[in-house]
Fold these 2 entries.
Entry 1:
Amino acid sequence: EARELFAKIPQKVRDKLLSVDYSQAEARCPQNLPIGKLMAEAVSKLA
């Protein structure tokens, strides 16, 4: 189901997911998650 939902996101938006600077989100994340790395991993797995 996740792949189906991801496929519904416009390609232009999906492409931007890999070029966004997530450093501000990472700096504010209370769990110190590597958001940029996780987003890249998610895009790779769901594509």
Entry 2:
Amino acid sequence: MVKHLWELSLNQIPLAWSKFYEDSLLNYPEGKYIEIKTIDGQVFKTWVNPVQYKNLIEHYFNKFKIQAKDLLKNQNNIDLKDFIQQLVDIDVALYNLLFEWAFEKDSIDENPRLYNPYTYFSSKQYYNYNFYFSPIMQTSFEETYAPLRIFNQGIPIKYSFDIR
């Protein structure tokens, strides 16, 4: 039974926006610009690329999983405060990336900015502490995955203390 986010595999979790992913894979696999009209009538272009967005979510999720496992293996060699901070950072990133994967988003036409890989990944929005710690309404996503956060589980510390 999975106890922590770093034990999950995205391959076993349905991609909530697979319809948009499949459509973009077929029609514009390299991405495209979409014009957006603001409330005040201004028009600007934004880049969307659900294919790259999905690939980057997979890449970063797997990268953070490996970092968490390595950190846990080496926790006796790391200062306790550093260990906890690094593990919380990783857990926050995993939870946010999992949300991007498993929570159904608006369509590209309704909110194209949601599928802009440059906006999300270059600004490291996966370190959204407000979302991680917020008492938000219970959706099926929170019911399923919030219990796996170390915020809910507790930090798996296996330190041996040398008392002299």
